Amino acid sequence: MTSSVPQGPRAVAKLKRRHELLDAAAGIIADKGFHAMTLEDLGEAVGISGPAVYRHFSSKQAILVELLTGVSERLLATATRIEETVTDPARQLELLIEGHIDFALSEPVLIRLQNRELYRLDDEDLRAVRTMQGRYLGIWSRALVAYDPSFAGESGRAAVLMVAGLLNSTEHVGHRWDGEMLRVTMTRLACGALGLSGDGAPQHPGR
């Protein structure tokens, strides 16, 4: 027990530095591309030397893997919590939309990274990301079919893929307009695409 006391602050500081490196790497890779990023660039961005980065990550590839798997892990964790705690499918869809919009507006750099650099992962890491993405969209699909059974099958899977693509478009437009206006517009478009009014009430009588 006593030996863990002095290690606590160091562990916290190391974790903080790790997060700083990930944030800096995301920005550099999004701007310059993965291959153009050097450890010297990354170290300088957080105030350490390039070689010191190896205290936190074994390689540039390890940084990319953590960034890209982290995106899917976060989205899946949020969606799983919604599915497990909310029973009304319309409300599930509203919260899924809200959660994805929160992510898309706060992390457009990570969306850009996922769109441009995902192919650089090796087969095992790419398979892990694709599995998490499939589970995430599966939660959307189940909520959509429970809300509107006419979306059963391929049409439901296509619908949630297209809505996710719409919400991820902040990579292209997020810097142009006010964030709150974008949030309202994205919510209206996504809810409209899935037949929601935005307050949980069906747009179409009989659903």
TrEMBL record:
Keywords: DNA-binding. Pfam families: TetR_N. The keyword Protein biosynthesis does not apply. Residues 15-75 form the HTH tetR-type domain. The keyword DNA-binding applies. Residues 38-57 bind DNA. One of its GO terms (molecular function) is transcription cis-regulatory region binding. This is TetR family transcriptional regulator. It comes from Corynebacterium terpenotabidum Y-11.
